Amino acid sequence: MSNAEDPTVQTHAARSWRIWLVVVLLVLIVAGITSKLLSLYGDDQAFLRSQGDARTVRTMLIPAHRGLITDRNGEPLAVSAPVATIWADPLRTDLQHTGLSRLSHLLEIPGQALMADLRDNRERRFMYLKRQVTPELAEAVDELDIPGIHVDREYKRYYPAGEVTTHLVGFTNVDGEGQEGLELAYNQSLRGEPGRKLVLKDRVGRTIKHIRSIQAADPGEDLQLSIDLRVQYMAYRELKAAVEVHQADSGSVVILDTRTGEVLALVNQLSYNPNDRSNLNTSALRNRAMTDLFEPGSTIKPFTVAAAMMSGQYTRDSIVDTTPGYIRVSGATIKDFRNYGELDLTTIITKSSNVGVTKLALSMEPDAVRNLLQNVGLGRDTGTGFPGERTGVLPFLNERQRVERATMSYGYGLSTTLLQLAQAYVPLASDGIMHQATLLKQEQPPTGKRVMPPGIAPQVLEMMETVIGPRGTGRRAAVDGYRVAGKTGTVHKASGGGYAEDRYVAVFSGIAPVSNPRLAVVIMIDNPKGQEYGGGLVAAPIFSRIAAGALRLLNVPPDKWPEPAKDQVAMQ
C-alpha cells in the first residue's frame, strides 16, 4: 500500500492544514489589531482627542462688565450688578432627583409645570429656567446639585435715578444689549468684550475644573454725561407737577449751559421706570425733547429782530407802525392781540407783535430770517448722536412766498425739537457764538462758531428782558435776585390740515442771568387743559421755579439786588 493511500497520512495532512489556517487567521487578527492601534496612536490621534475633549472640555464665556454711566459729577445713572441665570440641559436632567421640588420652590415655578417643561423638551440640550436671579438664589440652586441644572454668572443693569433720567440713559435688554437712549447709542463701547476660559465638565455637564483662561474679559468703557443729576431731579419734579396741574398731554424741559452747549438737564413727561417695565406704556418711551416736533411760535421773534438788525436797515430804536393792529399779506390777515400803534424793536418783542415782525421780515431779503435760523441750528441735526433724534423742518422760501415768510417770522410754518430751540438760544446768551448741544461732559471749553456779528445778541437779550417786566407777556417768569430774559410762545396745534382752535402748545424760552448768561432754559407743555393755556400763564411760571432752583444749585451769584426803600435812602 502506498503512502498516498495510507489513511494515517491523510489524517495528519488534514490536521496540519487546519493548524496553519488557524495560525494564519490569528496572525491576521493580531496584525489588524496592531494596525488599528497604530492608527489610533498615529493618524487618528488628533481626531480622537478632539472628540474626547468635546465631551469633557468646554470653552465658556466670561461676561464683561458693562461700562458705568454717570452724571457730570460722577453720580451713577446706570450700573451693572452681578446676577445669575438658571438653565437646564433636559436631556441630562435627572427627573427623579429629590431636589426638583425644592428647585421649583426657589424659582417660584409650579412643580408640575417645571416637570412638564423638562419632559416636553427632553431632546434639547439647553433651556432657560430663570434669568437674572440674585447671587444668593443662584448659590441655593447650585447646592441642590441636580444633574442637568446649571448656574451661569452674568450682570443686570440697574438705574439708580429711575424715571428721572430714563429718557436720556435708556435701558438694556435681558442680554445686556442697549435698546433705548444712550445705552443704545453707545452700546458698542459700553458693552465691552466677553472673555473665554477652558473648563472640564463631567458627563452630566457640571463644571469640575477650571483649566486655564484663554482671554480675559474686557470691561466696557464708562460714559460721563453732561447732565447735573441735582438739576435733573429738580426740573423733573417741577415738570411733573405742572403737567398734572394743567392736565396736559405731555411736557418737556431742556436746560443748557450757554458757555459750552452742555445739556445740564433734559426731562419729559410721560415717563417710566426702567427698573420695572412690566406695565410699560409705549407712548412713554419717547424722548419728546429730541424726537417730537412742534411749531415754536413767538419764541422765534427775537431771531427775526436780530436778523433785521443784522441787515443794517434797523436799530433797536427803529420805529415800525403796526396800525391798525393787523396786516393783509397776499390775501391772508395777520393780527396782533390789539392795535399797538407805533413800536420800536424792543416793544415789538415786549408785546409779541405779529404785525411788527411780519413787516420786518417782508422788508428784508427773502432768506434773511431763514438763514439766521439755520445758522443757530434749526432744521438740522444737533449732532448728539441720540437715536431717533429729529432734524425738524425749515423750508426754503422765495420772494413770492410772502405769506410763508410772514408766518416764519413769528414761528409758524417751521418745526423744531425742544433741544434745537434751546440750542438756538445759546448764541443770544453768548454774544452771537454758537455752541453745539452735547450730552457728554466737556473736559475743555469748546471754541464755538460765530453766527451773529458782535454786539447784536446782547441788545436782543436786553430787549427780551422787557418780556419779564410789568408790560411784558412773561411776567410770571421772573426770578427773585436774578435778571432774566425770555420769550413766551402760544401755538395752535396742527389738526386736519389746519389749526385747532382749542388745542395749544405753551412754550417759554429764557436765559439767566442777563448780566453774565449761564443757562438757557426752554419749557414746552403740550395741550394744557383748563382756563390757562398760554406760554406766559403755563410755561413761564415753570421757568421761574426751574431757573431759580438751577441757579442756586449751580452757585450762580445773583445779579439783581432789591432796591433800597426810599426812607432808607433818605437816612443815608
Please write out the topology.
Layout: H1 7-41, H2 45-56, E1 57-62, E2 69-70, E3 76-88, H3 99-107, H4 111-120, E4 127-133, H5 135-144, E5 149-158, H6 166-169, H7 181-185, H8 187-191, E6 195-201, E7 207-215, E8 223-224, H9 229-245, E9 250-257, E10 263-269, H10 288-291, H11 301-310, E11 319-321, E12 326-329, E13 332-335, E14 342-344, H12 345-351, H13 354-363, H14 368-375, H15 402-409, H16 418-429, E15 433-434, E16 449-450, H17 456-465, E17 485-495, E18 498-512, E19 519-526, H18 535-553, H19 566-571
Parallel strand pairs: 2-8
Antiparallel strand pairs: 1-6, 2-3, 3-4, 3-5, 6-7, 9-10, 9-19, 11-14, 12-13, 15-16, 17-18, 18-19
Helix pairs in contact: 3-5, 9-18, 11-13, 11-14, 11-17, 12-17, 13-15
Describe this structure in words.
The chain is an alpha+beta fold and about 575 residues long. Helices cover about 35% and strands about 20% of the residues. Strands 2, 3, 4, 5 and 8 form a 5-stranded mixed sheet that branches. It has a 5-stranded antiparallel sheet with strand order 10-9-19-18-17, with helices on both faces. Helix 11 packs parallel to helix 13. The protein is elongated. The N and C termini lie far apart (about 170 Å).
Please provide a brief summary of the model.
This protein has helices spanning 7-41, 45-56, 99-107, 111-120, 135-144, 166-169, 181-185, 187-191, 229-245, 288-291, 301-310, 345-351, 354-363, 368-375, 402-409, 418-429, 456-465, 535-553, 566-571, and strands spanning 57-62, 69-70, 76-88, 127-133, 149-158, 195-201, 207-215, 223-224, 250-257, 263-269, 319-321, 326-329, 332-335, 342-344, 433-434, 449-450, 485-495, 498-512, 519-526.
